[in-house]
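Fig. S4 source data, part A: sequence.
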Amino acid sequence: MVLMLNRDTPTSRSDLEIIATERILIRKFLSIAALPIVCGLFSGCTSQQLYGTGQEYQRNQCLHIPDKAESDRCLGKINTSYDDYKREKDSGAK
């Protein structure tokens, strides 16, 4: 969502916070989206390495949630090992 600002209309602090948050999210998304391409082209990352990188990113996002209960719930969702993930993925594909 892009927020268009009119110079004649004063912007509230919440509008500016929304814009700043959107810019941060876009940068994070682009860096995560570029990771598989960079790994594939330059370093030959394995799918397990990519999975681990994704888990670290998610863990970092969970740790930034202010509500402790919500943060713990978020962290609980990402504690799946790569082997368990691969088994679930393979069994679902059949």
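Fig. S4 source data, part B ends here. The first helix runs from residue 13 to 43.
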